[in-house]
Amino acid sequence: MFKTLVNAFKIKDIRKRIFYTFFMLIIVRLGCQIPVPGTDASVVAETLSKLGSGGAFGFFDALTGGSFSEVSIFALNITPYITSSIIVQLLTIAIPKLEEMQRDGEDGRKKLAEITRYLTVVLAIVEATAMSIGFGNQGLFGDLTGMQKTTAIITAVVAMTAGSTFLMWMGEQITEKGVGNGISIILLINIIARIPSDFATLFNKFVVITDSNGRSVGGAAVGAICIVVAILAVVAFVVLLQDGERRINVQYAKKMAGRKMIGGQSSYIPLKVNTAGVIPIIFASSLMQFPVVISQFFNADGSSVWGKIVKGLSTNNWCDPDNPIYSIGFLVYILLVIGFAYFYTSITFNPMEVSNNIKKQGGFVPGIRPGKPTTDYFTKILNYIIFIGACGLIIVAAVPIILSGVFDADVSFGGTSLIIIVGVVLETMKKIESMMLVRNYKGFLSE
């Protein structure tokens, strides 16, 4: 990876793109420090402390690089754009017009991108309004009442919506003029921004020697080694999970085109082990944390039946040896991840469509007849791969949850964050390598 970066800096055009991306990311982090006028960030911080870093708000705060808890103008960050992209992708399966746009080449993709932008603005307004009113009722704007409070809410909604829209534009600029993957890179820098404070939390809890904990030097050394080994092991596993794929060989028959014989070559269809990426974890976490967020806004009674159910849905109460009953929520979470992995893959990869395309091009899978047998073969392989990928996602997501429940290691980054970090880094490096390869070819042809 470092060798690729060194070689990339030797090429003027790529070097300019890297510096442009770096400059835009500096603006992103500066904007995350500018607070919305008239707000009190301590109100959000207090709510986050009640829910813990593993709650829905904590997960959202990790994706926004802490700008959510700071109530900055980038409080929503790019989460509305991510949500709108997922919604549009799902709607392409349900709405034939959108599916037609998706298949309509570059023009269709431009129309879908435009729809995604408009939907992003709408979602940003809805999320900013919900956040302003919900936290406003808990004192986000201080002691303001009446028209003054209404004006403060409107100001906050406009500021956060404008910030989210501006970040969407910056992401597109990074994609066009930078190293690509603009939205993903902004998400990456936000998550990385929170990691130093999380490492400091782990260091203070398991390594630092004080009179109160009575920890020995040997115990501190063991704690430090365990933290490093656990993080490296999870990162290595995520790399294997992201790069793992099942290659299905495809043979193309020879045919005459005029006086020439074409075809006859062999290729393969790569099926990624983690086909759905991090989407199943995000869907499962959002679905389970939604009741927790609503209960927090309405100050639900924790001793009631509903309050105990909410505790079972919160990740902070899972894998707690003192309250094992709440770990039932963890089992529900595992089932949801598996279910969403199958659901999301089924709408993004159509075995019948792939089989028909291979048949039209004169191809076939060796040993499998074209048509329905090929479709059934793809479906069988895909179901097998999805289950393995879902189990991998569960392992990555479960390790931080188990460590947090057993050892009370309260950190904002977890399996989801690590999957995003590794995935974006690998994807960006491949993008840079492809740009270098194109320029090498150009140089060869020019000579």
Folded structure, characterized:
With 447 residues, this protein is mainly alpha-helical. 70% of the residues lie in helices and 6% in strands. It is built from 16 helices and five strands. It has a three-stranded antiparallel beta sheet with strand order 4-1-5. Strands 2-3 form a two-stranded antiparallel ribbon. Helix 6 crosses helix 7, helix 10 packs across helix 16 (415-446) and helix 11 crosses helix 13 (328-348). It starts with a helix and ends with a helix.
Write a concise keyword list for the protein shown above.
three-stranded antiparallel β-sheet, single chain, 5 strands, 447 residues, two-stranded antiparallel ribbon, 70% helix, mainly alpha
Topology:
Elements: H1 2-9, H2 12-31, H3 41-51, H4 56-63, H5 79-94, H6 96-103, H7 105-136, H8 146-177, H9 182-206, H10 217-243, E1 245-252, E2 254-257, E3 260-263, E4 266-272, H11 279-297, H12 305-313, H13 328-348, H14 351-360, E5 363-364, H15 372-407, H16 415-446
Antiparallel strand pairs: 1-4, 1-5, 2-3
